[in-house]
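Two quick folds needed for the group meeting slides. Do the first one here.
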Amino acid sequence: MTKVGRSEAHRRRVPAIAAVVALFAATPACLAYDGPTFRSGLWKFERTLETDGKETNRLQASGLLIAREMTRCVDPTSAMKAQFTPFGACKPKNFRKTDGGYVFQKFCGSGAPIETQIDVRGDSAYTLINEGNIGKMSTKETVVAQRVGDCRHTGS
């Protein structure tokens, strides 16, 4: 290849490389996960629901019973990423990092926003609180999660 041919090829590559760099620089910050990270393993979850300040064991919207306690093998970081990511009609907004965790709102359709607070206690425990309204009724969901051990793997 002659010097002129190499120079022409170089001139074509520079704009392509610049376009790729500009694309990554323009990627929205919301796509980068900046939330808490937790250790995978056996986790215990304790969940409570309140409607108008009174504890209940049923989901207000559907009337279904909830499991108040559950212990299972999970990767809580993956589940937490879902809290920070738009899903269906729900869009998280107004993120604030606090001394002990995170606070943000989820907007789902035309309904009132759901205020979410996540208090992080290291890589092995957290409390998640969702508060909002269904019509004129106030609702509050609290999940206290703690890693209780390693998962047992069964061999084949």
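Then this one, please, same format:
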Amino acid sequence: MKTNRRTILKSAATTAVASTLVTAPKPAHAQTRMQQANPKFRIKNGRIKQSIMGWTFNPMPTPELAVLCKEIGLVAMEGISPKHYPMIKDLGLDISLVGSHGFKKGPVDPANHDECVEKLTEAIELCAEAGYKRVITFTGMKAEGIDDEEAEENCITCWKKVLPLAEKRGIMLCLEHLNSRDDSHPMKGHPGYFGDDVDHCVKMIKKVGSSSLKLLFDVYHVQVMNGDVIRRINQYKDVIGHYHTAGNPGRAELDDKQEINYPGVMNAIVNTGYDGYVAQEFIPTWEDKALALRHAAEICDV
């Protein structure tokens, strides 16, 4: 067979394409329907360190959920009782975020400061002793008689009371932005929440000026309230300390019934150099909750 330059180039190109197909990460696909979910999926690429917010899968027992996470390839959990931490550690999983005070009674109101400081201090110490790195915090709900400027100062004052300890112990407080728009369900939206504008949350964080206070960027809540998600991920990459996911509208699966292009979002996160956790925080509606988690893990495994 006669070999010429064109044949050689064609052969080389074919080999290169075949090699790419073999070695490149398998692409994730957005808007994948439940019927297309892979019941045997396990995380392959691992460029996103996936976690799960445990409360969303209630009433599934935490040990059962932990084993499922391990099977799928998630590397951490959060939003679970500290009594389960030893079991989680035995499975080789991390705790990606430790709880503190709730989202209703927050530092926006000085009447809540003692409780918030106490809860945050306990969480910081627990986190440090267990070898974890992040503690959640919130602004709390708006309070009657307190205007926005005063509310902001109240939050900053309260956080500054605990940040010296957080800095000393090497712990990051993560301020979660929540949407106040959705009033259909008590955990899908939070009407009256002070920190409902992600841009304002970032401004407060910058005013505090501590590397131990970062933003919890919840993709679902940001999409509901602000939108322009990928641009904001790039804009705020230096102040983001944690991520959450869920489909919008509905805070359900990351499937074809919601609007967020999660593979695009995950690639944007990877491209910022972020090396923390992304926790699945959707409320499953599918009868097969394990399949729902596998499906979300595949969507985000870019």
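Slide caption for protein two: The radius of gyration is 21 Å.
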